[in-house]
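S1.2 Input.
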Amino acid sequence: MPKPIEVKPLDHYCLWLKYSDGIEGVVDLSNLVGKGVFALWNDEHAFQQVHLGPSGALAWSEQVELCPDALYLKLTGKTPEELFPALRELAQYARD
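S1.3 Output.
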């Protein structure tokens, strides 16, 4: 799985991301603002503090992180099965 190598906060709760495979682009996270732990982002300055955490997650604090794999899927429009072919086999096995 490609790992994020750069992240930059943009206006309106968007992030520009670049991954180790060269994929880059913008994801809109505005739908999360104010929900649960994302209440932190009610202050847009807090959102601007994004950084790559030690495990590769996108982090704002020790309490607020986002999975880089989920953001990669959102950015590319790919499904988990496209990135992890073994999931397709597991899904087929579950249906049988």
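S1.4 Remarks. The longest helix spans residues 85-95.
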